Structures are given as structure tokens and as C-alpha cells.
């Protein structure tokens, strides 16, 4: 991780939008929000993922991935540096926007007081590999059930790390203000695998009553593509994965994902899928192959999707020899008007 493991940007729509294919933007870093998410002197020092989702009223959950834990110290020159003593695979933050933009960070600890390196959530269903852990990357709350549903990459520490599947974490009491008191259960999306990652982004479409999940089909050349899956809301709440279907190249929906339609000819493993009153459906993406945040827009989730470059990551993080950039996420709760939106992305060294 570099000094700033992620940062905020703001995008303004500079003209009236007549079509999702004609959008003009001006972007800049939001220094005030950067300061709100600054490292703590002791404890949470920064993290990746940075997905935010509504819990209730104006209270939001922030999902963090690998988290730097330790303390800040000051050098003789007066600079503040991070002393990282542990890296749990997941933590969470809670922000009540009626009170402050500054999140309260929550880290699970072991009985001896050290951070639980497995992260905030762990698989509770039967698993075959005891080394499995989660990177929680997307989520939503469904009013029909009142539960929060979190998509997680299932990781094992092989060759550094290897994704082997996708799980859904169901928080049954998200109205509890202290996340450490949450109760939850977990379920493996049975169609998911190391090459079919059903966890990129998630959204509920009220018009047809389906939950849509953007996924990566890693088998399609050259490096994998973004595909679309959907499941009826009732089946999703019941965790009935037999009802999960993939959009195929002929426009039909089927359980078999081997002929899945490429929605976007790039894999965006950590993204956000959001409805905007002017843009329609939009997906923010940033992958390891180019330091550019892209915006994909569509009138319908089935596409066609129109892609344009949104923001070029500035130096020094644009140097792909030294840094990787990933996980562009939209945070509409911070937008000051319908003509603006806020997003984050992660530079990592």
C-alpha cells in the first residue's frame, strides 16, 4: 500500500445529457473527503475495496478489504508515517451522514487483543478448505427482507492469493448500531468458481423484481469479460441459487453460463452498478491493465453498454511499473446534486 491507499474524485456533468452516449465530465480530487477518511493514530491505517451501501436513514456501511492496522509515527522531519503491525483481510466502517462524514471503524479482535487476520466476516457454512477467507466487495440492503446482502470473493492463500468462488453474507440485524453485534449467515453461490466470479457488482431492479449481479467470465479471451446474471428477489432472499441465470449471447437467460454474453470486453472484478436519474444504469470500472477509470452506461441492464474513459489516474500512481490501480466505486450518498457523483479508486504498490 502506498501513503494514500485510495482517494476520492468528484465528477461533474458539464452539459445537459440527452443520451447516455454523450456525457462530458470534469473531475478533481475531493480533499475534504480524503481528510475524513484519514488514518487513525492507533488502529485503522487504510484499506482497499471501499464499498459503501445504505443501512437505514442516512447511515451507511463501508466494506473494507485488506486493512493496514498499527499506528502513525512522526519522523524527525515532521512527516507522519504508518507503522503497520497487522493486516486483517476485512474490516467495516459506519458513517451517519446526519452526524459526520467521518466513519467509525470496526475491527474484530482475538481474545488476546490482536486483530483477527481472517477479517470481519468468515464462512459459516461447510467449507472444504480451512484457509478460506473473504474479500467483501459489493452489497445492498433489500427492504423486503430487511437484511443486508454482501458479496464476497472467496480467497485461499495459494500463489499469493487465489479466488475459488463467490459467497453471499446475509446480515440479519443491520439496524444494530454496533457491527460487532451483528448476526449473519453465509452461502456459496453454487455456479461460482475460480473462473466464474459472481461478485463484481450488485443492484436491485424494481421494474422487474430481480437482483442483478455483474460477474467475470475469466475463460473468455484475452483476460476475461464482464457478464450479467440475475435472480428473482424471492429466490435471492431464499439463497436459492438454482434460480440464478446468465444472459447468453442469443439474448436468452439460462443456468448454463458457458455461452454467456460479453457485456463489457474487460474484467472489472470490483465495481459498482448504480442507477442514476440522468445516466441510467452505470458501472464504474478500473482494472489492473490500464490506470484509467471507465464509465459504462446503459438504458437497460441487458445493454448495450456504452463505455468511455472518465478519469486518468495521476502520477505517480499512473506508473504501472510501481503501482496497480483497481476497484473504482461510486458513492452517490456524497453527491451534492443529481449532476454530480463521487467515486473512489485504489492505488496499491
Question: What topology emerges from the helices and strands here?
Answer:
Layout: E1 7-13, E2 25-29, H1 31-36, E3 42-56, E4 59-74, E5 80-86, E6 91-96, E7 104-106, E8 133-141, E9 148-156, E10 162-171, E11 184-188, E12 196-205, E13 210-217, E14 225-232, H2 233-237, E15 245-247, E16 253-254, E17 272-276, E18 280-285, E19 292-298, E20 306-312, E21 324-330, E22 340-348
Antiparallel strand pairs: 1-2, 1-22, 3-4, 4-5, 4-6, 6-7, 8-9, 9-10, 10-11, 12-13, 13-14, 14-15, 15-16, 17-18, 18-19, 19-20, 21-22
Short overview:
The protein is mainly β and 349 residues long. It has helices at 31-36, 233-237; strands at 7-13, 25-29, 42-56, 59-74, 80-86, 91-96, 104-106, 133-141, 148-156, 162-171, 184-188, 196-205, 210-217, 225-232, 245-247, 253-254, 272-276, 280-285, 292-298, 306-312, 324-330, 340-348.
Describe this protein's structure:
This protein has helices at residues 31-36, 233-237; strands at residues 7-13, 25-29, 42-56, 59-74, 80-86, 91-96, 104-106, 133-141, 148-156, 162-171, 184-188, 196-205, 210-217, 225-232, 245-247, 253-254, 272-276, 280-285, 292-298, 306-312, 324-330, 340-348. With 349 residues, the protein is mainly β. The strands form five sheets. Strands 3, 4, 5, 6 and 7 form a five-stranded antiparallel beta sheet that branches. A five-stranded antiparallel beta sheet has the order 12-13-14-15-16.
N-to-C SSE string, H for helix and E for strand: EEHEEEEEEEEEEEEHEEEEEEEE
Largest pleated sheet: 5 strands, antiparallel
| Count of DSSP-assigned helices | 2
Given helix and strand content, the structural type is mainly beta
Amino acid at each position: 500500500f502506498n501513503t494514500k491507499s485510495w482517494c476520492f474524485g468528484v465528477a461533474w456533468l458539464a452539459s445537459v445529457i440527452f443520451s447516455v452516449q454523450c456525457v462530458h465530465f470534469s473531475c478533481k480530487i475531493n480533499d475534504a473527503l480524503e481528510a475524513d477518511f484519514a488514518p487513525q493514530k492507533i488502529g485503522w491505517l487504510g484499506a482497499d475495496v471501499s464499498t459503501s451501501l445504505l443501512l437505514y436513514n442516512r447511515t451507511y456501511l463501508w466494506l473494507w478489504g485488506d486493512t493496514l492496522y498499527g499506528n502513525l509515527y512522526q519522523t524527525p522531519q515532521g512527516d507522519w508515517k504508518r507503522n503497520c503491525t497487522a493486516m486483517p483481510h476485512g474490516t467495516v466502517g459506519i458513517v451517519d451522514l446526519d452526524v459526520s462524514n467521518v466513519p467509525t471503524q470496526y475491527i474484530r479482535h482475538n481474545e488476546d487483543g490482536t486483530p483477527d487476520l481472517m477479517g470481519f466476516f468468515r464462512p459459516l457454512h461447510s467449507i472444504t478448505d480451512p484457509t478460506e477467507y473473504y474479500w467483501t466487495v459489493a452489497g445492498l440492503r433489500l427492504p423486503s427482507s430487511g437484511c443486508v446482502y454482501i458479496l464476497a470473493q472467496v480467497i485461499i492463500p495459494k500463489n499469493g492469493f487465489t479466488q475459488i468462488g463467490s459467497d453471499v453474507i446475509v446480515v440479519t440485524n443491520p439496524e444494530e448500531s454496533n457491527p460487532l453485534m451483528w448476526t449473519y449467515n453465509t452461502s456459496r453461490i453454487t455456479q461460482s468458481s475460480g473462473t466464474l466470479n459472481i461478485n463484481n457488482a450488485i443492484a436491485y431492479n424494481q421494474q422487474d423484481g430481480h437482483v442483478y449481479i455483474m460477474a467475470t467470465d475469466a475463460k473468455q479471451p484475452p483476460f476475461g469479460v464482464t457478464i450479467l446474471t440475475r435472480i428473482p428477489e424471492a429466490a435471492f432472499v431464499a439463497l436459492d441459487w438454482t434460480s440464478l441465470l446468465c444472459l447468453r449471447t442469443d439474448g436468452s437467460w439460462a443456468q448454463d453460463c458457458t455461452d454467456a454474453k460479453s457485456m463489457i470486453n474487460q474484467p472489472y472484478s470490483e465495481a459498482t452498478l448504480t442507477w442514476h436519474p440522468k445516466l441510467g444504469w452505470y458501472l464504474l470500472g478500473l482494472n489492473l491493465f490500464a490506470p484509467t477509470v471507465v464509465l459504462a452506461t446503459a438504458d437497460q441492464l441487458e445493454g448495450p453498454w456504452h463505455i468511455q474513459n472518465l478519469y486518468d489516474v495521476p502520477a505517480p500512481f499512473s506508473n504501472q511499473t510501481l503501482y496497480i490501480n483497481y476497484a473504482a466505486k461510486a458513492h452517490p450518498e456524497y453527491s451534492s446534486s443529481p449532476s454530480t457523483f463521487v467515486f473512489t479508486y485504489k492505488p496499491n504498490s
